[in-house]
Batch of 2 targets.
Target 1
Amino acid sequence: MIAVANLIRYEQKHIDFLESAYLPHIATISLMQDDVYCEPEVSLGDYVQEGQVIAKNSAKNAYIHSSIPGKIIAFQKEFMPNGKKEKAVLIQLEGAFTYLGKTRQNTQWLGIPTSQRIKSLYKASVLNTFDAPQMLASQIEKLQNKKTNTLALRLFNADPSIASDLFISQQYTEEILEGASLLADSINAKSVFVLYADANFIAPNDILIKKLFRHIDVYFIPVKTQYYPQGTLHDISENVEHYMTKELKKNTVKISLAIDAIAAFDTYRAIVQNIPLIERIIHVSGNAFARDTILKVKIGTPIQTILEEVGGFIQKPAKIIVNGLIKGRAISNIQSPIMSDTKSITVLSTKNFPDQTQSPCIRCGRCHQICPVLIQPEKIFQHRILHFPLSDDAIKSSKLCTECALCNMVCPSRLPLYQTISLLKEEL
Amino acid sequence: MKKTHRIITISPFTYLTPSIKNISFIILAVLLPQVLMLFFTKSYKSLILIAIAIFTSMLTEVLFNVFRKQKSLFDLQALVQGLLIGMLIPSTYPILPFMCILICSLSLVKYFFGGFSFSWINPIAFTLVITYLLGFNFFNIDLLVLDYITVKEPISQLLAEGKLAALSIDTRIIDFLNTKLFSYIGAEISPGYISYMWDTFSIIPALRFGILTLLASIILFSLDIIRYYIPISFILSYGFCVALFPQNLQYSIFGQGDIIFAFFSSGILFSVFFILDWPGTSPLNPLGKILYGLLSGIIAFILVGSGQSTIGLMFTILLINILSPLLQLFEESLYKRKLKSLILNKE
């Protein structure tokens, strides 16, 4: 494990409150969701409501909503933060809001059957961003056949350069726990493990826990988030196993579904408040900024608008990185919009930007030494890219990879090791 | 096997080690004081040889890349390689033959063993061994001859004969070390060591500035550019052998060899920190690296003794390079067993 202080070399500033970002004059909403293309339900010149379904793919249960009320002004290909140029709908802000500024009546979800909840989650487009974004409803659907399940809720970000999950878990603890209890109930979970950042969480009182989870066993497990990695499924399972066997002297259990705080929060909003996924809570940070901010942003808002709102740069920016320093992506177009899986925007200054020049592997062995699951990333890389011979067991070992990216971080040749292993994993 | 069409992008945006380009820059920066010292001590012949070594190394690299149709023609690592070779060549070595030997041996390594990090033979050691074999007379004319190693208190003898210039602060530092450090272990060192570590006045630049080499190694260790496994295990095994079997047995007793003198006499530290763990030539895992270091230390003691050979360590490196694939096979067989249990656990 590596101290986070060695990974994040700039000061991470304390954030006190959630700010609402400026509303976008024009929202750019991608027609792709979870790699599924959705057919537009609206035409050029149509007026749409906030939260209205503007595109869908009935076969895949994928829905896309308008994040703002307004007029459809174009359908065109736009650069997205994921690096792809995707077909998008451009909506010009106009008219009254359906959800923004309105008080919502909470729905009592206990009486809603699971099939209906799954349908609502599909309709609200709730994503599980615990790891690579996936439709939460489809994950729950797959667990319906199992008699008993377990749910793990992570209240911090796997990437220590992002603080959005940690922040909302402090601000909306009750809502997140209710979202988790709803999901636990939907998958017939016997136990729920809530993993929280050691120093930053005040556990709610027992009465609330009993009220929310009733017959489900809930375990609050502290995690030393000052070290990396702690947030992958492998780490979460190890933490749970350690807690169950060492602390409680009980048998360990396999985690059926792992979610992050934002997925639990979105579930709460979708089912209890009937609000589809139209906004994101985003952590804006980096040493090019004077301050760190947590913003509530409408999906489709151009990143440029957010950067201007945060107050511009205090140092010359080198790159704008979406979704964290570890597994994020540098965007090529500042007009790229916020998407449903965006969690953070980090801007690093040219002064602190690392050298990423790729060179051939120097066989230093650092990736072997740092790998927490003891695989040999360099050998798998050479096999996949340069077709070096490798034993079947070594190829199979790629399945053990947790994609923590530590191998990349120690690679002086700057090779895309974990990405290649992930590719091989998919191909196996 | 199904094929996917995913875009692989460069990430992360935070690293725990410097890139190869930056490592090369840092190595050049930590070696710069030694080059400057050569200039201040008017060792112009050495500087010319270093310049030629750098030029030739880079020329070979460019030609190799042109023939292989590589995108990038220039590699900073070639500059580092040239500088290190230049630092290990005696200033008396004739320029033209040196240049020809360098071009031939570096090309041989590149074409027969592969480019940087692909060659299992250390190109620097290989080049220096060829240079030595074709002109061994130039390596043997040096201050560090067997006579001095085998006498009692060689440093004092060198000082007495005026072959070593005593620094004015030498006595003060030695007194301080004797009272504050060595007295606790019942040892004492005689004056002259600091002067010796500062500049041995050797005709081979790498053998001269021991203190600068030590300082450079501290920087490289602290920036995680050099990993501890190989240098530390080498120092332990070599130091242990030197201490246990002193060369001047008529004066010293078994177990009281002069470790400091041995380390600073034949460029041992310089070669261990900068050359022994050359990319591609050493095992990849900690156990293999430790065995590699320990074995190199023992071989070095057999070939170099307590610092009697200026080229012995290059032969040591070539020998351990030959043994390295065996160590890697051993590593691999251990790993295969571990891997089986890891996969079984997962399944």
Target 2
Amino acid sequence: MSAADQLVIDSATGVEVALPVVGPGGRAYAFVLDWHIRLALALAWYGSGALLHSTLTRGVASLTVPFDPGPAYFLGAVLPAAAIYFLYHPVLEIVLRGRTPGKRMAGLRIVTREGSAPGIGALLVRNVFRLIDSFPGVYCVGLVATLVTRDSLRLGDLAAGTLLVYERDRDLDLPGTAPRSVAPASADAIAALATSELVAELEARWNSLAGPARANLARALLQRLGEPEAATAGADEATLRALLARRGTAR
Amino acid sequence: MTNARDAARLAALLERAPDWQAARELAQRLGRGQASGIDEAARALESYDALARDLAIARRLAPRSRTREFLEETYARLHAEIHRPAVHAGDALRRMLRDELPATVRWLRPYIVSVTLLFVVATLAGAWLVHAYPGLISLFASEEMIATVERGELWTDSLLNVMPSSVLSVQILTNNIIVSLFAYVLGVLFGLGTLYIIGLNGLMLGGVFALTAQYGLEGRLFEFIVAHGVVELSCICLSGAAGAAVGDALARPGLQSRAASFAAAARRSGQLLVAVTLLLLGCGFIEGYVSPNPDMPLPTRLVVGFGYFALMIALLRGWLFGASRAR
């Protein structure tokens, strides 16, 4: 289920959550980051492999492609570098469960249309379709697809049933969590309000609770509200209830 | 009074902030694959339920607060982790190869038959065209290849002189895998891209065989191809069948939306690509080490080729991984 620019997730608890869907700009940003990372990694491997190969075979460290490279050069320098470049997305998306370093930096992740992390099959299908999305070499097909589809999906996402959503890592700042309509309160005031709420709850549920249980709860609450223990220890239910009512009114 | 009660409820809700932070950290650990064990899984489920309750309250009491945003993000992240398919790659692969792949192959059977038929017809057409109009071979083969055949040699004769078997294997299997993947993904063009690739490959094969036949080299070409080609060409047809299913799902979505039909067909037929990729790795090895080896006699090549084909059938039927033969 999705509305414009957000993915609305149904859940077994009945509580829905809307995730912001990433548009073409966010996707392009993450892709550019990933492209630089994989290119750098591939070049680093190729350079290291080529230098090592030339050192071992010719005795000089050189990046020049040898005239007769041989299988060691191909299998040790060229092939792994190509594998890093071309398998970067499928491997990392599977290992990091729908994320890549670039997506992480851009604050994005891949989810299914149900809001869960995608499985291996979906991620493989998503990446196989890069062959078409990347046409003609600079992701023109993929970019056009993200511009014309409702949830900014490229063909790979359409095939795999996935999409990109924003995720934000933020720490909970307690003083800032109060709604704008409620004035900031001190810790004591918050605790007092919480106790007041408990008194109201106990009063409302009084008849549904067993006698000893409601008496014990009432004593605990009265002590929390400052009533001396001696005043509540031997008191009967009627007395406890009257004390609670007085305390509640006094608040 | 209502405001006081709501404020008190909100205050009580905020007392649970450390639990939310713990739930967020648990979701992050789950996301990184660092959490494990029954206890943490049970705690994730408890936190999920508790977060749902708190989120519902926060939405009512503080709909425009950061508390609500934080709870929504944490709840969504925990939802994603709880509903994520279990990642046991080995088990998943075994189950896929034993149960799901044979079912997919049965589902794709009409497409496999159709695409194979197309490939055979295209091969025959290519052979007839080059036999009847020899000049047309320039459409299917390079000038260098034609010149080599005209000298009474096969371009495959000197393969091992040009590059070692290991490099040749990797290059060949990479090329074959890319062709197969293209045959699959081009199904997105309502199947036409797939049919084009299959047809073109058939025409090329038939045309090249007709060219070699003109110089009496067709037997040697067959000898070169048979060890790897039986499975390799089958894999091209299987990938084409998967692509044709994707194209058919787009062209005739039935009761589903076109996008949903496409997604379902792509994911289901995509399983076949896993098997095809595995098989093409073997083909690359054979084509690098067995096929160009002049010391390898024809009977051995036939055994390798048709033995590997039998292995392919066993893989596609799930027999290699314990599926019953009764179906």
